[in-house]
Amino acid sequence: MKLPSAVIFFFIVAGIEIIIQAAGLLQFDGFIKPLIVPWLVLWYLRQSTSKDTVFVLALLFCWAGDVLLLLAGKQELFFIGGLGSFLVAHVLLIRTYQKLRHEGEGLNGPQRARAAFPVLLAATGLVVVLYPRLGDLKLPVIVYALILAVMVCQSFFRYGFTSPASFWSVSGGAFLFMLSDSLLALNKFYAPLPLAGVWVMSTYMAAVFFIVRGVIRHPQPTT
Q1: 17 CB contacts (<8 Å, ≥6 apart)?
Q2: Is 108 exposed, middle or buried (0-12, 13-18, 19+ CB in 10 A)?
Q3: Could you tell me the sign of the dihedral formed by the alpha carbons of 157, 162, 163, 165, in that order?
Q4: Has this prediction a pTM greater than 0.70?
Q5: Three-state secondary structure string covering 6-17
Q6: Mind listing the pLDDT tens digit for each residue in 172-198?
Q7: How large is the greatest C-alpha to C-alpha distance in the chain, in angstroms?
Q8: For the chain, give me the number of helices (H) and strands (E)?
Q9: How far apart (Å, rounded) are the C-alpha atoms in residues 183 and 177?
């Protein structure tokens, strides 16, 4: 199957980003990192017939978060801005997952609780570990962790209301998003991780890719 040109360029940019992180060539990151999300936006706009505005906005807030976090080393305020941008992106993704459903039979109450429990446990555990080191960021990080966990849970709750291809791609992407943010938080607030930039960016780029692919693969209603 021939890959769309936007996906090819995304993989090229993603590969360069990983090389930059692995080689420590962070002076070039400002040229490459802002190019990651736009190729996925273009892919979505070209492939999807629905062109959901909420989802496009979610991706644009991810892009804004990327740009702001690039500047976080210069001033802490930029980190707060990046955190806020990704927080808005997660809220918009929650809304997207709620909208992208068709008629079906999904998880019942106990099944939803079992699916949500490990996600909420992981988010709570991360906050507990980081809490003594968060300083003035305690409340923002707690709110962010909660919204992030809800985003992942909502992706799981699409089970039975979309195609298997859409469900697994979106939920896998949501899980990778949580993993990426957790690695970023541990590296920033707890202890430096070996090759942190490689792991954070690899999981983040894979997360957004799989989410976009899953949204594209959601069956559209026939007219």
Answers
A1: 29, 32, 33, 36, 201, 205
A2: exposed
A3: negative
A4: yes
A5: HHHHHHHHHHHH
A6: 999 999 999 999 999 999 999 999 999
A7: 55
A8: 9, 0
A9: 10
